Amino acid sequence: MYTTHTASTGLVKIQDLINDAKCFEVVRDLRWPEGVRCPHCADEHVIKFGRDETQEHRQRYRCKSCERYFDDLTDTIFEGHHLPLRTWILCLYFMGLNLSNTQIGKELGLNKDDVQKMATQLREGVVSRKPAPELQGTVECDEVYVVAGHKGHPLAVKKNTVRAAETA
Questions:
Q1: What is the 3-state secondary structure (H, E, C) of the chain?
Q2: How many angstroms from the chain centroid is the CA of residue 166?
Q3: Which residue pairs from 52-57 have beta carbons closer than 8 angstroms and sit at least 24 positions apart in sequence?
Q4: pLDDT digits over 23-67, tens only?
Q5: Which of 66, 85, 96, 69 is nearest to 20 (CA)?
């Protein structure tokens, strides 16, 4: 378990050492490296519009162009969940360390089934954001014809099944 000893209280879970403000700052920096942009219209003319009531470090914005509201997590894989952002970040970190869902659940104080759902969403989010590969230079393609199975020939499959049963 990822814990540390303190003189006065005994053990401290790693989740208690993660700073919520830093998690939101990192998400902002990764999401908008060149400044905040509206996720609805992609315009850069946005103003800060207060903070979330439940997560004090979650910044709200209003777009001056389309006049829509959004926040740091709008249109991300972290949006719409009741768990704090630091829990998602730690889950992603533990996944990178190749911990099992059971181990991650113990570290985060979560059920392994909930961790499975989180891990699936995180993996899908990473895959959906991965840019499509771009080919460069000379690219060659060969024609290939592969016979895979007996598609369109069900009798051939039936004959092989009968032969296998007879030899066994």
A1: CCEEEECCCEEEEHHHHCCHHHHHHHHHHHHCCCCCCCCCCCCCCEEEEEECCCCCCCEEEEECCCCCEEECCCCCCCCCCCCCHHHHHHHHHHHHCCCCHHHHHHHHCCCHHHHHHHHHHHHHHHHHHCCCCCCCCCCCCCCCCCCCCCCCCHHHHHHHHHHHHHHC
A2: 51
A3: 55/20, 55/24, 55/84, 55/85, 56/20, 57/20, 57/21, 57/23, 57/24, 57/25
A4: 899 889 989 999 999 999 999 999 999 998 888 899 999 999 999
A5: 85
AA identity, residue 22? K
Residue position matching structure tokens 């850069």: 44
